[in-house]
Amino acid sequence: PSRFESFGLMVAEAMRAGTPAVYAAVGGLAEVGAAGPHNLAAAGDDAADLERRLREACAAAAGGARLRFD
Fold it and tell me: Exposed/middle/buried for 37, CB within 10 Å: 0-12, 13-18, 19+?
């Protein structure tokens, strides 16, 4: 996971594309990612939490959940 991000362009680009993002909530990522209702934030510097969030997103997609922004 990222340990520092000044802005969080990856999350902003995902939201612009209508796609949720899984990210480590550090630096600018925490602020930008909070704007997306379907984004999944993992605790900063916690690889196990990031893995849990990624698995959560994959399980939702496999179960047919809608993972796009309205």
Answer: exposed
